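Pasting two entries for a bug report.
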Amino acid sequence: MDVINVPAELRTEIGKAANKKLRSEGLIPAVLYGSEEPQNLTLTHNNVKHLIYTPDFKIAKLDVDGAPVEAIVKDIQFHPVTDSIEHIDFLRLTPGTKVKVNIPVRFKGVSPGVLEGGKLMVQMRKVTILTTPEDMIDEVYADISNLNLGDTVRVEELEISDKIQILTPPANPVGLVEIPRVLRSAEAEELEAAEAEAAEGEGGEGAPAGDDAKAEK
């Protein structure tokens, strides 16, 4: 599990005016929620960039005036124009207390369908799980080694411990092997040829019967 150290300072001034002043100074207002009373914090962009700007799931180890606290990011507010971080909500991790987190989906194995020219199409990059801090994981795997052309792997097939509950609907597709257009065209041509051959065969079988009928007349 990747843990990012994030220095933080307690702040006493709260409200829109105080937050606006912090942002004007290049700082980020934040709040730490959890088993205790919410704590209002001040962070720097440099200290949180590796925690926020990443596709990976990471735990924050907040150093709140010398007191270390492990937490996860629950919500981030970005500026609508500049996309800079405006506010962060953290949730304290308490041993034995379950939390919901979004973790990335990774793919493993070699798909036979991909080897035949298909393309793996990612349908879902993250799933939501419910777990305790003790059983926390930072990724979950989908095995694609049995996927042929046109096959799909779903949430219910993800490899995960029975101590962890996946909250994402089990039937949702995670990835599929798409059949390339050139292969679809070839299959269509083969199907048309087979149908034409079958039609000719049926016509051929009926011809002698027609000749016999004429002979009887």
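Entry 2 (this is the one that rendered wrong in the viewer):
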Amino acid sequence: MSVGGGPRIYCPASLAEGAVVTLPETAARHVARALRLGPGDPVRIFDGDGQEHAAELVAGGPGVRARIGPPLAPIPEPGLGITLSQGISRGERMDFVVQNAPELGVSRIVPVRTARSVVRLDPARGRRRQEHWRAVAASACEQCGRSVLPRVDPPRQLSDLLA
């Protein structure tokens, strides 16, 4: 197994050297279809909590699995806990903000509904958007090298945030 090569993949599983983990569906699809990787190819897997390991793909197809290798030294996290409170914007603007926040060292993202917000989210849609923004943040961490995902809070009113 080559140490530290290949693309970075977010896998929210317990990463222990020698274990075999099944990649999440979206990551598996990306690895198999977009990157065209198969058994024997090296990847780097991180858990979002600061652990990163070299790994080797051991099975392809619908259930892509990887054997976890030795731990790798992650990029150090910023010493400050930076919280980004962002008014919810429509279209791809909010995704753009969430995508760039990990690169800037943000550790927590708080989507905020304001009195003049155009976007209206009921609780169910708010949860779906929160999950979407978590996935955007994970993808950004794969690209920028961070091993700790920023926390994405559920959308809240500005008055609640300030209280």
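Dev reply: Rendering is fixed now. As a check, the viewer should reflect this: The longest strand covers residues 52-59.
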